[in-house]
Amino acid sequence: MMQRPPPDDFLLKETNPHLGGGKITGDKLTSTYDLVEQMQYLYVRVVKAKDLPGKDVTGSCDPYVEVRLGNYKGTTRHFEKKSNPEWNQVFAFSKDRIQASMLEVTVKDKDFVKDDFMGRVLFDLNEVPKRVPPDSPLAPQWYRLEDRKGDKYKGELMLAVWMGTQADEAFPEAWHSDAATVSGADALANIRSKVYLSPKLWYLRVNVIEAQDLQPSDKGRYPEVYVKAILGNQVLRTRVSPSRSINPMWNEDLMFVASEPFEEPLILSVEDRIAPNKDEVLGRCAIPMQYVDRRLDHKPVNTRWFNLEKHVVVDGEKKKETKFASRIHMRICLEGGYHVLDESTHYSSDLRPTAKQLWKHSIGVLELGILNAQGLMPMKTKDGRGTTDAYCVAKYGQKWVRTRTIIDNFTPKWNEQYTWEVFDPCTVITIGVFDNCHLHGGDKPGGQEIQGLESGVKKMGEIHLAVRFTCSSLLNMMHMYSQPLLPKMHYIHPLTVSQLDSLRHQATQIVSMRLSRAEPPLRKEIVEYMLDVGSHMWSMRRSKANFFRIMNVFGGLIAVGKWFDQICNWKNPITTVLIHILFIILVLYPELILPTIFLYLFLIGVWYYRWRPRHPPHMDTRLSHAESAHPDELDEEFDTFPTSRPADIVRMRYDRLRSIAGRIQTVVGDLATQGERLQSLLSWRDPRATSLFVLFCLIAAIVLYVTPFQVVALLTGFYVLRHPRFRHKLPSVPLNFFRRLPARTDCML
């Protein structure tokens, strides 16, 4: 049995960190990093050198610079045979880890045996100036090199040394002392903080109308013609044309996802299905995406005829056949009025249409301060011990941010701050913490750069955040609640559920492929994890959680039903008498019914204001049933698709799924039975039951016509609220009648 952590371990915890370096008073300039703790760094910018002494008669050298502070050492790249090199590299040493009073900057000559000393510059840390943005960058100066005795040496080095914070513009690209163990240009690039932008995505609609003058090779048969369209890795086909002729018609829409810049053309081919596994290409055309019309509303674009080219093989070479041109009639457009869904609908961070002309003004700014993480678990082993190289990724809208990687630390401190424009308040920001598996020699075989903060019931750590939303116009934000959630094209020309699923899969593939080609890359598994690609996969835990969510929704109605049952059974006679009085007032004065209902809802809302949520929503392990999930259920949830588990485990899970599906099947069948009984009231399947119901309807119509409605309502209410002395334990007559009505269960196999 796994030992589960206490439920309080997963609750949100309020903290009081020292943000922005403390309170801002007087005329002190406000820092852009006011949502994070201020971190002090010693910055050393190595710009260039001149007049360096050579090591041979030619006067050439292979120089590089070594920056040393205590036990920390950083080096620039070296140049071959260059006495006036330019590096322009920045080194950042955390003030918390400084254990020396002198900074040593040494120029060395690269050698196969032992690097030669060429000179150095020493700095007393007490004399280093401080700089805080928005001050201009510190201008570098020339320093004369000295030997180890302090005598002046030949050659000069241009440097700038200052004390600053993480708000410094040199911070993102600097070499950091906490990453001193990382070597190699690629590895260093993989640990830097970066901002990424998702590619601009469009829906491409291809309306295939008809083709003319097709030339099948077999003239003696009716062709079975369809159109195949290819855009990148996406392949779609129309149905076989019902008009089996050389002038087929389809009038069918094919939907693709395209991304800017448009690098690949749309390729269409008209093919004839000669045999089950044999197709003949009757013509082909390639359409550059740059020339496709862009549509911003529901008005159709003009149709166009495209010539189809057919290639024939002559002497082993493909040649274009142009003796007779077939044509295809299509309407092609890039849909700018839709929002391309690449996220889970429950975690959408952006709902704007593709076309920028249709965007509305922003309603505010979201600021996120990523302070630190605590209690992270070891994700890999190094030198026989567990270690974690953690970084954080946040995604909102088209903007992705990635913090720098903190090497070998279970309590990393990032203290980085980012901002986003907000266009809709009903959106979600997604934040994840990951372990960097692409250091120390590149990618590890089978290594996954995926690890969230929670995995089942195992607590993986805590992340410390500061979030602030600044609303630019309260009126505009309130107005957003009256607007449709998605752009209007989703309602005027809605896409089918299957189309949306397929298009979302294609969109996530395009985004993950594009971001994985950035430098440094945002790995494919990271993007898919943040976009919640596997949210549609089967999960026993999620199914239980959703079932209890439904029960919680109906819990209020069930509570009202129980309360009303107590009223009807006179459990509290005083309350029942008051309900009788209220009922009589509402029947005699029906114009008070709606005002009473809305006043009651208003009072409930005001009453519940005392218990309003004091914290932002977060991952709730109890709601998610992560605390009570069986280990096998979690293993099934994280299994690959198709499965990679042994046959006996798959058989056991299949049998379990069959038993659950059997219960669902029974419930669905019971619901269908009740609905069919309602239909059978007037279907004359049971002539006696229908005759009784029709006769009852006639009598009820006459009685209700001659009797005032208020009298009927009062009599019905008094009958429902009658005293238990006048009640029977047997079912009522209408219920007995309904249960005897026929259903179609007796016709099923």
Automatic annotation (TrEMBL):
Ranges annotated as spanning the membrane: 576-609, 692-721
Compartment list: Membrane
GO cellular component: membrane
Keywords carried by this UniProt record: Calcium, Membrane, Repeat, Transmembrane, Transmembrane helix
Membrane topology type: Multi-pass membrane protein
PROSITE patterns: C2
InterPro entries: C2_dom, C2_domain_sf, C2B_MCTP_PRT_plant, C2C_MCTP_PRT_plant, MCTP_C, QUIRKY-like
Highest taxon above the source species: Eukaryota
Gene3D superfamilies (alphabetical): C2 domain (2.60.40.150)
Record flagged with keyword Cell membrane: no
Residue ranges occupied by any C2 domain in the UniProt entry: 23-143, 182-306, 347-467
Family statement drawn from the similarity comment of this UniProt entry: Belongs to the MCTP family.
PANTHER family xref list: FT-INTERACTING PROTEIN 3-RELATED, PHOSPHORIBOSYLANTHRANILATE TRANSFERASE ISOFORM 1
Name of the protein: C2 domain-containing protein
Taxonomic source organism: Dovyalis caffra
Organism taxonomic ancestry: Eukaryota, Viridiplantae, Streptophyta, Embryophyta, Tracheophyta
